[in-house]
Design brief:
The complex is a heterodimer of chains A (184) and B (163). Chain A has 184 residues and is mainly alpha-helical. Chain A has 2 domains: 127 residues, no CATH class; 47 residues, no CATH class. Chain A is 72% helix and 0% strand. Chain A has 7 helices and no strands. The longest helix of chain A is centred in the middle third of the chain and has 41 residues. The radius of gyration of chain A is 18 Å and the shape is globular. Chain A starts with 10 loop residues before the first helix and ends in a 9-residue tail after the last helix. Chain B has a domain of 90 residues. Helices cover 82% and strands 0% of the residues of chain B. Chain B has 7 helices and no strands. The longest helix of chain B has 39 residues. In chain B, helix 6 packs antiparallel against helix 7. The two termini of chain B are 37 Å apart. Classes of the chains: A mainly alpha (184), B mainly alpha (163).
């Protein structure tokens, strides 16, 4: 990854983007939606930068999507961008769950089908996002190998997150030390 | 909950066992069944699952409880992440930073694929949901339809098809 590109984006624009993301994403699929919006739609950051921020968000404490909001908001528009993006990523969810909790604890089954449909679509979108991030490496056997081994370690062997990083990060660093990025 | 915030590595699911131990077993604020119901809601509502903390706070002490719980869960971790982001950009000229980023990328992508598989297990439970997921993936890659429009359309399909 070369020098990070810094697009001229205002704190308000960043906050508004994350507000819309916060209102339209669910649980674990949120990070995929942030990648789609920031990289593919708005082109504010590159997939490379997204993966870097995703790494920091994963390694740091706290839920992933507000972490990503802080890191990307800060990168694009400084402290104001970070603060607005963080508020936008957390406040709507908190307000929604309190309202929803009051309403839906009684009428849960009526909206169940709708929410299951939304959740299924979110899965499809998450897979599409992962596919797009992997595509530039389709002829890079080494990187694909690290991706695949990490996947197996987590899904099949149930390795905890910290152990995954402790084992795979040094391996990845050593294997890739003389290999330039194949994507641009 | 402030302590949980600093320890909440890896997202909300990793926090659930500790949250249960604190608010159900130790403090007796809510019951185990209530926590499970709150948790399901947290995954259905927009935003991060951890907003479930607000609902627990609300159940315990009303709106003020919701506010205190949210601040305690989100803010300490947010401060740490901001500091990490600052440190990361300060070392932008250091060759080690790019090497570290290059090393992180395939590992995190593996984790992202694992996350997809976990989501798949939770949300795809038969033919209808599988078709919706496939159609959504094909639409976002093949057309310029916006993500939100796809999710809303899937909700409409689910309302009719998944009752």
């Amino acid at each position: 990854m070369a020098a990070m590109t810094k697009a001229p984006v205002g704190a308000l624009a960043v906050g508004w983007a994350f507000f819309k993301l916060g209102m339209t994403t669910y649980g674990g699929a949120a990070s995929a939606a942030i990648g789609d919006e920031m990289v593919r739609r708005r082109k504010w950051i590159t997939y490379e930068e997204f993966l870097t921020f995703r790494s920091i968000a994963l390694v740091a404490p706290g839920p992933n999507s507000p972490n990503l909001a802080i890191l990307i908001g800060r990168h694009l528009a400084g402290p104001g961008g970070a603060l607005l993006a963080f508020m936008a990523a957390t406040v709507p969810g908190v307000v929604a769950i309190v309202l929803f909790g009051l309403l839906a604890l009684t009428t849960h089954s009526a909206i169940g089908g709708t929410l299951r449909g939304c959740a299924a679509a979110a899965v499809g979108l998450a897979f599409a996002n992962a596919l797009e991030m992997t595509a530039p490496w389709r002829s890079d056997v080494l990187r694909l190998g690290i991706v695949a081994t990490t996947f197996v370690a987590v899904m099949v062997l149930h390795a905890p997150l910290w152990l995954t990083f402790v084992i795979f990060l040094p391996v990845s660093l050593v294997l890739l030390r003389r290999k330039p990025q194949t994507r641009n | 909950m402030a302590l949980l915030s600093v320890l909440s590595f890896g997202g909300a699911n990793a926090v659930l066992p500790q949250l249960h131990a604190d608010v159900v077993d130790q403090q007796h604020w809510i019951t185990s069944a209530e926590l499970a119901r709150f948790w399901a809601l947290g995954q259905l509502v927009p935003g991060p699952t951890l907003s479930v903390g607000a609902l627990i706070g609300y159940a315990v002490a009303g709106l003020a409880g919701a506010a205190v719980a949210s601040v305690a869960l989100y803010v300490p971790a947010a401060v740490i992440v901001y500091a990490l982001g600052s440190a990361w950009e300060r070392y932008h000229a250091n060759p080690w930073r790019d090497r570290l980023a290059a090393g992180f990328a395939p590992v995190v992508l593996g984790l992202i694929w694992a996350g997809c598989a976990t989501l798949f297990r939770g949300a795809v439970d038969g033919m209808p949901t599988a078709v919706i997921a496939l159609a959504a993936g094909a639409l976002i890659i093949g057309t310029r339809v916006h993500r939100v429009a796809i999710i809303l359309a899937a909700g409409a399909v689910g309302y009719i098809w998944l009752r």
